[in-house]
Amino acid sequence: MTLGVILLVLFSVVLDVVGQLCFKMGLDRLPELDGGFRLKAFWGQVFNSPLLWCGLGSYAIEFFVWIEALSRAPLSLVFPIGALAYCGVVLAGKVVLGETVSRRRWLGTLVITAGVMLVAVSGA
């Protein structure tokens, strides 16, 4: 795998993490609706949330970065490396959002990272 492909996949992972953070922060900042859940009012709030639009923009850019990475390397190699987005989201949830991450979840994150490293090394 070339350095260019590695950088594309890592950029895709970063965009995925940024998108997830924007979605979470955007939804958390929506005001409470009076009278329970009202779909029309909810969607009006969603469409007026800059953070949710940033998340969508991040995903749109990620789509094109991902397509470029796929055009340069096998799916069976690139897709497992893309799983690092899961690890990035767990880390970002802890660092940026202050979420509590259990030992079991950290262990799972480490197992995923080890698996990604095995796939990356075997695909070289």
From TrEMBL:
- What does the UniProt entry say about where the protein is found? Cell membrane
Gene Ontology MF: a single term: transmembrane transporter activity
* Keywords annotated in UniProt: Cell inner membrane, Cell membrane, Lipid A biosynthesis, Lipid biosynthesis, Lipid metabolism, Lipopolysaccharide biosynthesis, Membrane, Transmembrane, Transmembrane helix
Return the Gene3D superfamilies for the record: 1.10.3730.20
- GO cellular component annotations of the record: plasma membrane
How does the protein associate with the membrane? Multi-pass membrane protein
Which Gene Ontology biological process is one annotated for this entry?
lipid A biosynthetic process
Its transmembrane ranges are 43-65, 77-97, 103-121
One matching Pfam family is EamA
Q: Ranges for the EamA domain?
A: 49-120
PANTHER family cross-referenced by the UniProt entry: 4-AMINO-4-DEOXY-L-ARABINOSE-PHOSPHOUNDECAPRENOL FLIPPASE SUBUNIT ARNF-RELATED (PTHR30561:SF9), SMR FAMILY PROTON-DEPENDENT DRUG EFFLUX TRANSPORTER SUGE (PTHR30561)
**What is the protein name stated in its UniProt record?**
Permeases of the drug/metabolite transporter (DMT) superfamily
